[in-house]
Amino acid sequence: MLRKQSRLSIFMLLVVLAMTLTGCTAHTTNTGEIDRSGIWGKFVGFVSDGLDFFYNAIGDYGVAILIVTLIVRIIVFPLMMKQIRYQKVMQSIQPELAKIREKYKDDKEKINQETMKIFQQYGANPFSGCLPIIVQMPILFALYQSINLNPHLKEHMFLGILALSEKQGIANLILAILSAGTTFLQSKMSMASSKDANAKMMLFFMPAMIAFFTWQFPAALGLYWIFGNILTIIQTYFTKGIRNAAPPEPKAAKTGGKSK
After folding, report:
1. Of the candidates 50, 75, 70, 72, which has an alpha carbon nearest to the alpha carbon of residue 61?
2. Is 0.85 topped by the overall pTM?
3. Taking every annotated instance into account, which residue ranges of this chain make up the domain Membrane insertase YidC/Oxa/ALB C-terminal (predicted)?
4. Residues 223, 224, 226, CA angle at the centre, nearest 5°?
5. Residue 201 half-sphere exposure, CB side, CA atoms within 13 Å?
6. What is the pLDDT averaged over residues 114-136?
């Protein structure tokens, strides 16, 4: 399951890149405003309006992006908690899953059936481990669109030194390094107790991919990613008690304990 999560992460990031490079985007009208026709256009317009709202209140688009990032992380936080619990369950049931794979190594269907039984016993939902990624990808892509199409943001400087619409400049190189570093740190903290070889590979692959995206896309998107990573690192630190908690017991064991 950890492998499936890793593959999904890569897939979703590649989808964003492919949609961007092939021009599968929202567009502007003749007046320079974002075309809000269709569901996607309305969503991109909503994100752009959010950036403009916080900019008008504060006067800095970089800070506006930070606030939007914080809001997104608050929305995703309950899903992240589910993801943490799912990862904890996965760690505790690995010995049982290994026995199942060994016992039914020639019968993939039986392996899947027995694996699902284990998930049901522990109340684990494999989909919950992927929800934070799935929820954030449309928001990330919409943010890219709103940054790329917002006529006001294109000429704005963050803290008077960083052009938020700049691509492939020195500032983007610095942001790429920071985004890779913070991605590595938050992944390292999340995978601290994981012994999965695929997860360890992702520990280095994901920062490299994020650095490439940051280099290619507007600087504002790099800020979003760095802010998001920092918030995730903070969340990971304050939820380490949950991560270090005792492994969950199967539902049958809990029920038996109550009946005594």
Report:
1. 50
2. no
3. 61-240
4. 65
5. 10
6. 72
